[in-house]
């Protein structure tokens, strides 16, 4: 339906007490050559007499246009529905595959450890590829260089958290901001819970909650990540598109840890909270998520 | 707009008893372009308020007022205020305050001067715009009625009568004429009954009509805004004579053609030729390129936690249902098997089972003590350090 109702010829358009015959441009459309039947509608007076009413051509055109729009809309709807159904299947299978993968990984780790113990040696885990950093100090009284580094890490607020790939560059950055952050190696449960509960995506500079897979598809579809499970998998296995996936995720806004921090001012190894706490970050995430 | 598209205005004939012109019945005149000019009440208001200042006469107080005394202040120390007081004695006036605006008999604050700026200059084009607007407004019945004229019985607007009206000499015939053309009810309106009758302004016509209260006659070549839009309000009731209305075209020109009487003057163009927005929007030209209206506006819904809300979880991850189902089944299985194991352990062992267990123990011991039969010797060596 258009914003305005289609204009109907209104006899009050004539001036009162005037016999001026004006030529309105609209009337040029319905010239004398048209067949009267096409433009005529029927209206009935109270007595039951039929009166031929001219339906303006613009009204007919509008009706036709609206029909076309409706049809196009219906087609589009059907197409998206079909696509959604297909996607659903794909997502299901992917999630199943990932679940199997994670289980296998876990089992494999246990098996390797047992094997090593059996032989009398030790199994050394490979160095972690993924870090989760949480900013634990506020914004006042900070050296400008460390402030810039924290901004680069997207940690602009206290108890903000981000994922980070481990390489020489990032490790050196972390070293410089150690007193302001705590970080460690998150496990699958941490990643899953963070993304499901506090996951927001960045779409056109806006922080949009991840309430539907379509949002993720909109943001990361071109890298083949179309659902939450894909995203989680990319993060945790630090895949080829980790950078894009991680940047798509808005920095996590965590709550202050239940049970409190030990001592912000000290390093973790000194009994405080700052710096690398490796696997114990997971326990902190449980308390902050 | 082509001149050919000008609507026709019919000229009202006067009663045959008045004139000897029984020849023409209903003639018509093309509507002059002036009547189609844009009506700008804001310009009319501005021009009117300025032009109406031009016939003012200056007023001022005498410049000597209040100063025709030799008053001087007594100064302090005399228990009176320091206002200048009239010197001398022997009369009431002595010692009274003088000069100040607060004093009785003193001069007023800011005595008015004759050189106050009484007259206002208005740009010629603006003045012409206003007159043109007022003329156009006078041809629109709704505006005329809104101003208060009783024009319900007038056959046509603008009201044009034949030129024989110029030869009317008696006021009574003038009134009859007004009655014939349906303009008398307006004239009867005692207080606000003003109707102008621009004609060619010959003396006869003027004489006849000027005694009717509220009627003014004007020469079409010299139309006055103060008369056309009294008080700055558009829509005075105007009765034209045929030759007057024919002259309008030459006086004001058209939208393209310059006026003959006013050098280089062209009628003002409106900002929007077609101001009927509803019509424009509903026109085919606009509607054909318009996009369909969005009826369903998507609004952001409250985010629900998928870890707690199963439906929301399923929306994001359809596999979650089977995963959870499998987990529950596995859990049930585990519980069951543990229970079974415990039950079995807590149940007192039957004789046959006891006997079987003992026999198995004995057999194993036997294998242990015979070195070569021992299959798990490797493990044994590791923690005992013995070799075979």
Descriptive account of the structure:
The complex is a heterodimer of chains A (289) and B (388). With 289 residues, chain A is an alpha+beta fold. Chain A has helices at 36-39, 57-119, 144-152, 168-176, 188-198, 213-220, 228-236, 242-248, 281-288; strands at 40-44, 50-54, 130-135, 160-165, 181-184, 200-203, 206-209, 252-253, 275-276. Chain A contains nine helices and nine strands. In chain A, a hairpin with a 2-residue loop joins β6 and β7. In chain A, α5 packs across α7. The longest helix of chain A is centred in the first third of the chain and has 63 residues, at 57-119. Chain A is elongated. The model of chain A is unreliable at 1-7 and 13-39 (pLDDT under 50). Chain B is elongated and about 160 Å long. Chain B contains 14 helices and eight strands. The model of chain B is unreliable at 18-23 and 190-194 (pLDDT under 50). The termini of chain B are far apart. In chain B, α6 links the parallel β6 and β7.
